[in-house]
Specification:
Blueprint (H helix, E strand, L loop, with lengths): L2 H8 L6 E4 L10 E4 L17 E2 L12 E7 L7 H14 E12 L1 H10 L5 E2 L6 E2 L2 H5 L17 H10 L3 E6 L10 E7 L15
Parallel strand pairs: 1-2, 1-4, 2-3, 4-5
Antiparallel strand pairs: 5-9, 6-7, 8-9
Length: 206
């Protein structure tokens, strides 16, 4: 039995729902996992409030036992080929019909914001006000924290195609982001193989 499975058993969890790269955004009833402790001066997140400290590329959990995997502004921190590998890896961990839920910036929506210029929303950074589209291309380039930088920004069509090629069924693909910036960010819900009818987004994560 993996560490994550044992944690779920010890805490009376009926499902194994993983909030990977949780940062300072834990979700009650989920197993919140991060590989990095909060460092003073990190302007990108509010903290690191995890249940288990673990690398999401090497999760200690039994195959086909995970019900849901949530990644909120996580995958853009990996190069493209590594994300493709992660999609395959997560598929081995999910139960049949298990869900992969991803929110992250959409490359093309970020470009739209950049082209809007001063009319687009901006965020305060140590480098001064920065366009909310531009911030997503490179991530945090001011705090000297390698894991806060962005390495690849996906377009929604490109990402859903990658999910389909990896064997998932895409249930939802929209720009109704729940955790960050609506319109700019994509929200994609996919189902692992051996699934039956596609269902709506689980409202428990909203």
């Amino acid at each position: 039995m993996g560490i994550i499975n044992q944690y779920a058993l010890d805490n009376g969890l009926s499902e194994i729902n993983l909030n990977l790269g949780c940062g300072g955004r834990p979700i009650t009833g989920w197993i919140n996992i991060d590989n990095y402790d909060y460092q003073d001066g990190d302007h990108s997140r509010s903290g690191s409030d995890y249940d288990i400290k673990m690398d999401l590329r090497q999760l200690d959990v039994a195959p086909a036992t995970v019900d849901k995997i949530l990644l909120v502004h996580v995958l853009e921190h990996f190069v493209r080929w590594e994300t493709l590998d992660l999609l395959q890896y997560f598929r081995t961990l999910l139960r049949p019909k298990g869900q992969l839920i991803v929110e992250m910036p959409d490359f093309w929506k970020c470009i739209e914001l950049v082209l809007r210029g001063k009319d687009a929303p901006h965020m305060s950074t140590p480098l001064g006000p920065m366009n909310m589209g531009m911030t997503q291309f490179y991530g945090n380039q001011w705090d000297r924290l390698d894991y806060e930088t962005h390495r690849y920004v996906w377009g929604i069509d490109e990402f859903t195609s990658a999910l389909t090629e990896a064997g998932y069924a895409v249930l939802l693909a929209s720009h109704e982001a729940q955790w960050h910036l609506k319109g700019r960010d994509m929200l994609v819900v996919a189902e692992a193989p051996s699934a039956t009818a596609a269902g709506p987004l689980d409202k428990s994560i909203a």
